Amino acid sequence: MHGGAMRLESVGVGQTAVRSRVLYEPQARFGRATVGPRYFIVGVILIMTVALLLRTWNLGGASLWTDEALTAVRAEAPWQESLASIVAAGNQTPVYFWSLRLFPNSTEALLRLPSALMGLLGIALMIFMVVQLYQDREMALWAGALLAVNPFHVWLSRTARPYAMIFVLALLTSYFFLMLVRGNRSRALWAGFILSSMVAYATHFTAVALLGAQYVLFAFMLRQNYRLLRRWLVSQVMAGVPVLVWVYYALRQPAEVASEWIPKPDLYDIPLTLWNLTLGYDGVFKWYMVPALMIVTLGLVFGIGYAVADRKPNRTNFYWFLLIVVPLVLVFVMSQFISIYVDRYFTVFLPALLLLTIWGWTRYSRQVWRPALVIVIATSVYMVLFSFHDGSFRRDDWRYVATDVAERYRPGDTILLERDNTREAFVRYYNDDDA
Asked: How far, in Å, CA of 44 to CA of 135, rounded?
């Protein structure tokens, strides 16, 4: 009984009532009874309103940067030309780019709008998932608020690239998987798991991190549940068919894959990556970020520690831990030979970072963790607003470059570009200005 009402929990296959109580008991620290339905709805509306403003303000103000220009080509060009551009990249798939053809995409704002909407959907799903997995409205509001103002996620949502979409797919896949692990194995959940995994793998190759974390969880925790393991393997085979067909086709075509632009990572790049994902920290020291950096670091350390210590009764948090560690370690090791270490490629574990940070702090009294999370939110808001103020949210200002070149160009001059993929960005604005 809780607050005069009966509360029912699903124990799940292979669990006991005692284990279920151990799993949910620490969640009382969030003060579930203090967040009623009305307060929760108001909080969600406020969070979504702030998220909408941050993701749509002046959405078309910045010119497309190099990768976005390639997105425009693949979304606007004839099918064969679009396909050739995707295949030539060697490490991309057509799902995201061709989905943009379903919407108007003639301007910078329209091209980026699907990412902004995906960003909003990701926040709504984050809140929903936390309520379902943790049975806690207050934790859901904190998770939604942290994500709504997260500088890294704001940037993903304002960029015409597939990362906001892969964030949503990672959330969906993780949610379905964790519900299956808990014993809720309806046909609808299996279908949702297969479909979300299938689209995730076919959207961006970094989604393979989800498969890796799930497999390691089976190795650690579920070795005795062979029936679930077999069904999971069959589901993964089904989910992997479309992307395997694409890989087979792409490997038969000439590719121009090059990663020379990606520097080889050092160990100190790992904390920089975690800070970038959680606070938008770019490696340049800023005194006003120190408190938030300390709070995020301590929260994540505590959260990871609790996730490992409670790995048997709380498989959810242990999965989040694996979703961070597995791709981070594998990509770091691989990048010592061929570097593929780019922060945005770790988008799939951004939810895990935020949830474990919250979990780490909420083991303390409310007088400690609530102000701590408020500091993180305030710092994140400042980082986003300051980037709008000083213009640093713009990547490559090809519009200015094209205008400047047009003014200085003289008959007989030759324009040299560093790489082929920069040509699309330059020509887009140079032709527009000099048509």
From this structure: 16
Give CA–CA dist 282/415, Å, rounded.
Answer: 32
pLDDT at 332 over 80: yes
Tell me the pLDDT tens digit for each residue of 180-189.
Answer: 999 888 999 9
Q: Is residue 288 part of a domain?
A: yes
Q: How many structural domains compose the chain?
A: 1
Residue 240 lies in a domain: yes
Phi then psi dihedrals of residue 5, to 5 deg: -125, 150
Task: Answer yes or no: is 99 within a domain.
Answer: no
- pTM over 0.90? The answer is no
Residue 121 amino acid letter:
L
> DSSP secondary structure string, 78-97?
-HHHHHHHHHHHSS--SHHH
Kind plus residue range of the DSSP H or E element containing 198: helix 187-203
Compute the distance between CA of residue 154 and CA of residue 118 in angstroms, rounded to an integer. Answer: 11
Range of the domain at 116: 17-60+107-396
- Find residue 2's DSSP bridge partners: 5
Q: Is residue 219 part of a domain?
A: yes
> 54 near 391, Cβ under 8 Å?
no
